[in-house]
Design a protein that fits this description.
about 525 residues; alpha/beta; 18 helices; three-stranded antiparallel sheet
């Protein structure tokens, strides 16, 4: 096995596929530009989704990327595992190669095998493979054309080896490549171990063959409604952190040079010795993972806030701060750790250097806000827990969890972390209900304020004309960089609407969007010029 740094592994991947005629395509933003159903870009194929659907055409038919990804919501939400687990992350990089109606299974399989065994030098006798149970073609390629021992290839069901974009639409079989952690157990036990999905094998690469168009839902996977695509495609994904750990012979992703520099910077900034760092491994991992994620989120315009994507950025910074607090840290320092992230990754992702000042500013500001309220919120939480203990109960109610969030800025995820350490749980469904009810009341109150204001007649006129759909787009967090584009939808002079204004006149300009906080819940509105 070759000795390679993480940067060398990433570059070797891109160079290899470039040598095979692939266009090296820059990573897309973490905010999907073509898929409103996704909170964040969570796979390499997201930026090519319209290409695979035939709704977009690129000047190339082969592509390769190192895509920045976030998986922190929905079925991919493993936040609680980040830190204790050696290989769970919120932000990660996905190495991928793609074919848009060009090559198919044989080339995809040969490329993957050659890259792993020749370019990276992984021993072939440490690899295991899976194919879809009905995919005779892929099984034949691995065994009869590549030359893999059939005792290393498992035929699996649709749960693990069939991919579909939705209940209907593009779909197809997959083939996975796994790293054998325990080769001493022998070749005859490989297939049973792969079928059992036990810890002997670590999945490192997934090859997706978009082969069919499913015309109607087929939960039993009979294949009766799968029509062959006229131009089948290939979509592969290899976790960068995982393959780096394999190449560098590390049992945990956090022990690779991807994270070591970030952790070293944390240790230097905080003045910890090696023994202290080793005793607080989970906290160090959480800080490294979350600040890497936060830096990329801010660079892509997702600054800390209370709604939608911005809540994720805020929660990650605060969760990192909470784990730092458990180490006795009571001062802002995460913004300094972000400097190590920028130093390490800006040569690959230049947006980190471009927005370095903004990254530092937003992370530090969020640290200061959270530290200002942490002591008070922890005291309130301690009182809640003590009361429950006296009553013999072990669950924080949804209303209490929402009170901690709304009044003290303590995200649900942090409350959950804290009480789990004491053997308690949180009624998360109740939290969502309380949150939805609060949102509904806030919207009703805001609507009454707008209607009763002196500009109510103008609002109605703009709405009736279709100039303003519903209300002014209000998002004080997305625009916190103080610069954004909007449309002038009305001009007022002396309280009257006019169609034009001239130099020297004093007028009021109404925009379709605002970054100003609107009066609500007892807080006064923002003012500015």
């Amino acid at each position: 096995m070759k000795h390679m740094t993480s940067d060398e592994i990433r570059q070797a991947f891109l160079d290899y596929f470039a040598s095979k005629g692939h266009e090296v395509v820059a990573a897309a933003s973490l905010v999907p530009g073509n898929d409103p159903t996704l909170l964040f870009t969570n796979a390499g194929m997201v930026q090519f989704k319209d290409v695979f659907l035939g709704q977009d055409k690129r000047p190339y038919m082969r592509a390769t990327t190192s895509q920045k990804c976030m998986r922190i919501s929905g079925k991919h939400n493993d936040l609680e595992n980040v830190g204790p687990s050696p290989r769970h992350h919120t932000f990660f990089e996905m190495l991928g190669n793609f074919s848009f109606g060009d090559y198919f299974k044989e080339d995809a399989i040969r490329y993957a095998y050659e890259f792993l065994t020749v370019v990276l030098g992984l021993p072939a006798d440490r690899l295991g493979f899976t194919v879809y149970r009905d995919d005779d073609e892929a099984y034949d390629i691995w065994i009869n054309r590549v030359g893999v021992d059939p005792r290393r290839v498992a035929r699996m069901g649709p749960k693990t080896n069939f991919w579909q974009m939705a209940d209907t639409g593009p779909c197809g079989p997959t083939s996975e490549i796994h790293w054998d952690n325990n080769p001493e157990l022998g070749v005859d036990s490989i297939v049973p171990a792969l079928v059992a999905e036990d810890s002997r094998f670590l999945e490192i690469w997934n090859l997706v063959f978009m082969q069919y168009n499913r015309s109607q839902p087929d939960p039993a996977h009979t294949g009766a409604f799968d029509v062959p695509l006229p131009a089948p495609g290939v979509d592969t994904g290899m976790g960068f952190e995982r393959i780096t750990a394999v190449v560098q012979g590390k049992g945990a992703n956090y022990d690779t040079d991807i994270f070591s520099g970030i952790m070293d910077a944390t240790q230097e900034i905080l003045g910890h010795d090696d023994a202290f760092r080793d005793a607080h491994t989970v906290a160090y991992r959480v800080v490294a993972d979350h600040i890497r994620a936060a830096a990329f989120l801010v660079a892509d315009g997702v600054t800390p806030g209370t709604n939608h994507r911005e809540y994720i950025t805020r929660m990650l910074i605060r969760r990192a701060m909470r784990f730092a607090y458990s180490m006795g840290v009571t001062r802002p320092f995460l913004h300094q750790v972000a400097g190590a992230v920028i130093h390490k990754l800006s040569p690959i992702y230049p947006e980190l250097a471009q927005f370095q000042d903004g990254i530092t500013y937003h992370i530090k500001a969020e640290e200061e806000r959270f530290l200002a309220t942490l002591e008070r919120s922890l005291g309130t939480l301690e009182t809640l827990v003590s009361d429950l203990e006296q009553r013999g109960e072990r669950t924080i109610s949804g209303e209490d969890a929402f009170y901690l969030y709304e009044s003290h800025g303590l995200p649900l995820e942090i409350t959950r972390d804290l009480v789990q350490e004491r053997g308690f749980t949180v009624d998360e469904a109740g939290f969502r209900e309380a949150q939805d009810e609060h949102r509904r009341r806030s919207e009703d109150d805001r609507g009454r304020i707008v209607v009763e204001a002196e500009y109510g007649d103008l609002l109605k006129a703009l709405t009736d004309a279709g100039t303003l759909p519903g209300r002014v787009h209000y998002d004080p967090y997305t625009y916190s960089r103080l610069s954004f584009n909007s449309i002038i939808i009305a001009v007022l002079k002396g309280g009257k609407r006019v169609s034009q204004a001239h130099a020297g006149e004093t007028v009021e300009v109404v925009l379709r969007d605002t970054s100003f906080y609107v009066e609500s819940g007892g807080q006064v509105s923002d003012t500015g010029i």
